[in-house]
Amino acid sequence: MEVIGHLINGEMRADTARTQDVFNPSTGEVQKQVALASTATVEEAIAAAQAAFPAWRDTAPAKRARIMFRFKQLLEEHAEQINALVGAEHGKIAHDAGGELQRGIENVEYACYAPELLKGEHSKNTGPGIDSWSEFQPLGVVAGITPFNFPVMVPLWMYPSAIACGNTFVLKPSERDPSSTLLVAELAQQAGLPAGVLNVVNGDKEAVDTLLTDERVQAVSFVGSTPIAEYIYATASANGKRCQALGGAKNHAIVLPDADMDNAVNQLLGAAFGSSGERCMALSVAVAVGDAAADALVDKLSSAMQQLKAGPFSDSSNDFGPVITRAHQEKVLGHISSAEADGAHVVVDGRGISVAGYEGGFYVGATLLDNVTPQMASYQQEIFGPVLQVVRVESMQAAMDLIDAHEYGNGTCIFTRDGEAARYFSDNIKVGMVGINIPLPVPVSYHSFGGWKRSLFGDLSAYGPDSVRFYTRRKTITQRWPSAGVREGVQFAFPS
Hints:
Elements: E1 3-4, E2 6-8, E3 11-13, E4 19-24, E5 29-35, H1 39-57, H2 61-77, H3 79-90, H4 94-111, H5 114-117, E6 121-127, E7 130-138, E8 141-145, H6 153-164, E9 168-172, H7 179-190, E10 198-200, H8 205-213, E11 217-223, H9 226-238, E12 242-246, E13 251-255, H10 261-273, E14 283-289, H11 291-305, H12 326-341, E15 345-348, E16 367-370, H13 377-380, E17 387-393, H14 396-405, E18 408-409, E19 411-415, H15 419-428, E20 433-436, E21 452-453, E22 456-457, H16 464-470, E23 472-480
Parallel strand pairs: 1-5, 8-9, 8-11, 9-10, 11-12, 13-14, 13-19, 14-17, 16-17, 19-20
Antiparallel strand pairs: 2-3, 4-5, 6-7, 7-23, 12-22, 15-16, 18-21
Helix pairs in contact: 1-8, 2-4, 2-7, 3-4, 3-7, 4-6, 10-11
């Protein structure tokens, strides 16, 4: 059976003392194994990155950008192969995998802008014959720890910007679906990255803890669940590292009575059930204002959901695929049963789904729960599955209060025709990313992605302008070249 290894110093490596099965979630069968890196293997990757840093730091930003341009081209040329690997190991339908890859490519395009992004600020004659300027200098060796749900896109949130800024990188992707991540990294090598600039180590907590504690690693980026994000941030910070750790979410959509209900339903279906709900920006709660709006919303949703089709990634007529593992399937099903036991009405039940020819797959059908309340565990926790919950409230302010009270503040949206209501909502809601009649308000690559509250630990968001600030240090230089024959006397007063 194939064993997926590591990319260290430009070469494929595998330490096979410990391995883990990689499943095809569409069938439930083991298809590969992945090597889990030992501490020594991770330290070797860090050493390779450290050795490569001085020369890469001194490489002209324009040359780094040209490599990113070639990388973008290779990603487009290998799109079908990349998407197939995502589907085989994550279960994501081909069209969804293609969307993920495109969003990743857009971040590579942003990194191509490195010469402009790294321009400092200059002020002439800040004093007599004195000039001042600032520079953005790379940190050194930086690391990324990425989740299973976007094995291509999220790594591309991180290392293109980091590398374009002059850093070297060690990536620890999810061990559940590592093949597409590794292929993309190999394409970066083919684009011209010198050996050691980008390294990939597959592994588990041992690999993560090595990255968090090794003094050579200057910064850590993470995307995953909130409990792990909190651990990553606390451990990295305690070890003197800069850290950004993006955590979980419970994204709400407010549906006002004046909303275009048919449009809202179409948008909610894709946002709630696309990628089986395994997105940190998935819309998992619809907050309907007034019973009339709620009844219309539930009626239209339940009718439309009868047409949704779950199945394997290879059939592009499917709307979404399986969830990632058997254990996660059981967790999602448990949340549905818990909500029902707590008094929610199961309008559309995705439990017990069976896909012909793929009976062993990790499937959960699209599920709609009505009359959910904030006291329910299923409401409080991130389900991360194809489950949409409907909460009924009496006013827009009550809906906003509900959202603001939740521990997560990743994304939210509102469906309305009322511009005044939309503006009030966007100005006052305590959430980091807001959509107006847009259910997945994921920023484009030249903005930055990040939530509020317990959805983000750290001061800077992912990708975009914040990524340049995160992966660089500002240095300010002030200089004077005295004119010939002109010398100032000693000054003891603070300069001004």
